[in-house]
Amino acid sequence: MNIALRRLARHGYVPLMLLGLNGIGIALAAANAPKPWLLLVLAVAIATSFAVERVIPYEPSWNGTKADSVRDRVHAVVNETLILVSVAVIPLLAAIVPAPGLWPGDWAFPLQVVLAVLIADAGITVVHLASHKFGVLWRFHAVHHSVTRFYGLNGLMKHPLHQTAEMAAGVAPLILIGLPVDVAAALALAVAIQLLLQHSNADYRVGPLKYVLALNEGHRFHHLKWAGVGDVNFGLFTLLWDHLLRTYSYDPRRRFTSEQLGMAAHPDYPVDYLDQLIEPFRRHDLTRDPSGRTQ
């Protein structure tokens, strides 16, 4: 394959997604464009993700289906719909819970989106960390950790109740201080793009930013299947909270394979979509490690 194309993909993919497509989304949201335009940007992001994973795959075998493609697409549609619904109900919630007018509406629109991202990142990180500490939450979060390959759609491969809990934790503080709907729309797109990048099978490069941004190099450590070892790098957008909470982990020498991912305690975790929805409600031994993993 053309070396120049691979080099372009390796160093240009993340700027294209984080700055380019998010930038287009921010411009559309600021102009109060119809929401289908943001969905079009998301479709371009998904197509770009799949294309780059084939140009510069981290692990070529992960580009092949493992009888999970249809299931993951259902997860993606359901959970992305939940994200969009959370944006749609903001005006209703704002009417029920009057905001104290703390939102900096006089800031430049891109800065408002950055602020929303940082606040949402804190709330989502807290729920994510708690999901590895408390058995009840882990039951629902385990759906996400059942994956044994990394690729873009893994980011939305979540139980819808857990997805709702994470988004609620991220968005609720914003609503309480008066988050505008247009900023929320840009935030929703940013979440989807970040999940694509964070779980990408693309062997891209971001230099020293890998220590700050919650991208795939660091997030692979989070999906290691052994107790304690994988309870690291919880951030969605950034690794700032992980550095503060001492849950950050990175080793450039580590190479990941499917045998290292998933849950050691549940190698036979259900793979069908409906079975994954039901699994958290089945009886489990909550006396063991809430992470559901073994050494």
From TrEMBL:
Location(s), subcellular: Membrane
Fatty acid hydroxylase domain ranges (all copies): 113-247
Coiled coil: none
Lineage per the UniProt record: Bacteria, Bacillati, Actinomycetota, Actinomycetes, Mycobacteriales
One Pfam match: FA_hydroxylase
The protein's name: Fatty acid hydroxylase domain-containing protein
Primary localization class, coarse: membrane
Domain of life: Bacteria
TM annotation in the entry: 12-31, 37-56, 77-97, 109-130, 167-197
Keyword flag Membrane: yes
Signal peptide: none
Entry keyword set: Membrane, Transmembrane, Transmembrane helix
